[in-house]
Specification:
heterodimer; A: 3-stranded antiparallel sheet; 9 strands; globular; B: 117 residues; mainly beta
């Protein structure tokens, strides 16, 4: 159950688009369309942003989108805004019927 | 709206036990699977365990298997995490959360567990 690999940090200017990658194996990310993404602001509980690779829960901005290719999933934030400055985590269902989170990415809005 | 309130955290010595509780409201608790997820201070999220809506199945992270037990009482709308043989590396904020569509949907605010002598 090794953590999924994410870049430690990604930054962008307001209005730009950024993409966060999440790399796993064929036993998790690559084996199932069950990747989810979470946003966490400092001192707060995480919030679900994307589920089943590309689905947005009600109330989540359509500036957030998800995709997957092989063993790598991606979260794209378009039209970057100051409020998007936060930590982001991916997660995947695994072949052991468990779940694994990514290492986390700090998004900085310049 | 969905509300999840964790309790039971605190300071405990290595090797001792602690039981966390999570009181749920605002939804039909008995219809949803539930997760425990933890976060060590300054670190990332770590999935801990999941229990089926009816308690019929449980799965654990390797790091806690054999030491932690997840359970629920649907008559009390409460989720539990029994933690035995605690180690320093179990120090974290523990979140309870709802399961749905292979994701972690609604999260509580967490309870801090500190394992220290």
């Amino acid at each position: 159950q090794s953590a999924l690999t994410q870049p430690a940090s990604v930054s962008g200017s307001p209005g730009q688009a950024i993409t966060i990658s999440c790399t796993g194996t064929s036993s998790d990310v690559g084996g199932y369309n069950y990747v989810s993404w979470y946003q966490q602001h400092p001192g707060k509980a995480p919030k679900l942003m994307i589920y089943e690779v590309s689905n947005r829960p009600s109330g989540v901005s359509n500036r957030f989108s998800g995709s997957k290719s092989g063993n790598t999933a991606s979260l794209t934030i378009s039209g970057l805004q100051a409020e998007d400055d936060a930590d982001y985590y991916c997660s995947s269902y695994t072949s052991s019927s468990t779940y694994v989170f990514g290492t986390g990415t700090k998004v900085t809005v310049l | 709206q969905v509300q999840l309130v964790e309790s039971g955290g605190g300071v405990v010595q290595p090797g001792r036990s602690l039981r966390l509780s999570c009181a749920a409201s605002g939804f039909t608790f008995s219809s949803y699977g539930m997760h425990w997820v933890r976060q060590a201070p300054g670190k990332g999220l770590e999935w801990v365990a999941i229990i089926w809506y009816d308690g019929s199945k449980e799965y654990y992270a390797d790091s806690v298997k054999g030491r932690f037990t997840i359970s629920r009482d649907n008559s009390k709308n409460t989720l539990y995490l029994q933690m035995n043989s605690l180690r320093a590396e179990d120090t974290a904020v523990y979140y309870c959360a709802t399961y749905g569509d292979y994701a972690v949907w609604y999260w509580g605010q967490g309870t801090l567990v500190t394992v220290s002598s």
